[in-house]
Fold:
Amino acid sequence: MEIRNITKLTELRRERRRIEDVLLGFRMVRKEALQEGSWIRTIRRALGIQEAELARVMGYVPRSIYRMEQSESKATLQMKYLQKAAQAMKCDLVYAIVPKEGTLEELAREVEESRYEIQGDDETAGLRRELWKAIKAGTRD
Structure:
């Protein structure tokens, strides 16, 4: 492999590790299933805020809060409303995309392997498989 490619792979791994550290908190939250199905409802209740009170702060009618919570639980609530609810409760909206299983590094390896998945029994397929094995062996830490 060229030095440039090795450097790029090293930088990618470093960035994945940094992101993994950030995602750790999200992984922990994901494991805690929301009983309410809505972060707005969960946090609102934890803070002791009634629908009417949150609606007043947001400039809405109380029924709007119920609809927002229902929309959020169905994954149809627009991000801007989620942000506005968070701000009204003096919270930050934080979201992430987290691998379902394993780490980003493991997932990246799976993606790369699927890209180079080699089918067939002809001679060139065998050579490509050997090349892929060599690439994998050369890119591991």
